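> forwarded from #structure-qc
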């Protein structure tokens, strides 16, 4: 549907700045967005809703949690069994973490597919990547807090991985663990990190959304807003965002009620035991692709660099694909096929991460890793050159 832009010459935004917060909100409500935005554009709003839930349930849980190696597991048991509705709060916080990471990955893949990282939205993309790293660190720190078997051994594995870094590794491991092995100082560090980062994430989200509003949304067709036509953010997209949030909330409640254990690692219901290493130490599902990559390399530093590089390479995406505004569009089959291979590679590496890294699984992990990196270092630059007519 075609239409005229709703904020002409930034007049609305100017008026809003002059007349306070309410008027500014009104101007945001009138923000013109491409008329062809599809349902994948609701995920940002869903992320905001889940983030709010995580902060609220997290603050409530904090009231009854004790970050001490001898008391942490018991305090979490107390929340589950004695605190009124404590089991529900904890279930919401744990399931919420998985929903948040799932939504984050979908949001990221949407950005990759529609190339939302291209100018003028490079800053939006980079702030998103920073958010991803912050969310990962927060999720990891949170997983250590209940001080179950996986919490303890997860902290141990991460500490040793950090320790493998040349020159500063030993020092960093000491800062991370607060001693030679995970213990109360580790819990204090993880608690401070988990709590503090939640607020930094909220501040960063405000910056991220402000950047989206300043730069304008990209569109599924890749055409400028003058060609797609514009619709105001409210009511067209606010209503869709709210409907999507309600639908996700229903799915969330269904998981809580019918499959409460679907994402819970049962070993973490056993208290941390430094004398008993579990047969399989595995992180939460959303870290598995990176864990698989870390395991697929025979020496620690290489594994650490390749799994860290898998996140770091996302920061470079706007520079790997520089064909902004090119007249030669990439065929949909090619774009969708490449993204599909990226997802399959990540899932394959994740599956390998769940198994002992030997024989067939080792091969799967290595192939998955090659597929993952190929998307970024081969497909994106090649596509970009092809679009600019630099290839035969
Ligand atoms: C806490 C995590 C995040 C929150 C709450 C969040 C929220 C949002 C919201 C509300 C929007 C506008 C609506 C939409 O396009 O869906 C948006 C847009 C965007 N986000 Fe995020 N985001 C997060 C993380 C990320 C990550 C990890 C990336 C990528 C690395 C990213 C990249 C983008 C981009 C490129 C856009 C602009 C899309 C367009 O062109 O319209 N975001 N985000």
């Amino acid at each position: 549907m075609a239409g005229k832009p709703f904020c002409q010459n930034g007049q609305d935004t100017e008026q809003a700045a002059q007349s306070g917060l309410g008027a500014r909100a009104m101007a945001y409500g009138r923000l013109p967005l491409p008329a062809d935005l599809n349902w994948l554009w609701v995920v940002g709003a869903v992320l905001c809703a889940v983030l709010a839930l995580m902060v609220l349930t997290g603050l409530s849980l904090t009231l009854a949690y004790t970050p001490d190696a001898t008391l942490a597991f018991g305090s979490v048991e107390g929340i589950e069994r004695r605190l009124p509705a404590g089991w529900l709060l904890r279930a919401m916080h744990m399931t919420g973490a998985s929903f948040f990471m799932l939504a984050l990955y979908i949001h990221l893949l949407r950005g990759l597919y529609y190339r939302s990282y291209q100018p003028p939205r490079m800053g939006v993309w980079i702030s998103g990547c920073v958010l991803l790293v912050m969310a990962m660190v927060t999720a990891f720190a949170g997983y250590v807090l209940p001080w179950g078997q996986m919490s303890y051994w997860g902290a141990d594995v991460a500490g040793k991985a950090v320790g493998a870094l040349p020159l500063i590794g030993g020092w960093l491991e000491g800062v991370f663990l607060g001693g030679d092995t995970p213990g109360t100082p580790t819990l204090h560090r993880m608690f401070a990190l988990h709590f503090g980062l939640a607020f930094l994430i909220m501040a960063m989200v405000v910056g991220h959304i402000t950047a989206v509003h300043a730069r304008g949304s990209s569109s599924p067709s890749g055409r400028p807003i003058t060609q797609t036509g514009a619709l105001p953010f409210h009511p067209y997209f606010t209503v869709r965002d709210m409907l999507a949030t309600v639908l996700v909330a229903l799915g969330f409640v269904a998981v809580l009620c019918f499959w409460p254990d679907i994402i819970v690692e049962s070993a973490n219901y056993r208290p941390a035991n430094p004398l008993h290493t579990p047969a399989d130490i595995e992180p939460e599902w959303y870290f598995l692709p990176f864990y698989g990559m870390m395991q697929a390399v025979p020496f620690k530093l290489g594994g650490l660099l390749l799994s860290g590089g898998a996140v770091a390479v996302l920061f470079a995406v706007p520079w790997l694909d520089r064909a902004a505004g090119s007249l030669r569009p990439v065929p949909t089959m090619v774009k969708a096929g490449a993204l599909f291979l990226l997802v399959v590679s990540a899932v394959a590496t994740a599956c390998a991460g769940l198994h002992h890294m030997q024989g067939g699984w080792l091969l799967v992990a290595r192939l998955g890793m090659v597929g993952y990196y190929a998307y970024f270092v081969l497909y994106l630059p090649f596509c970009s050159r092809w679009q600019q007519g630099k290839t035969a």
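QC bot note: The radius of gyration is 23 Å. Residues 67 and 191 are 7 Å apart (CA to CA).
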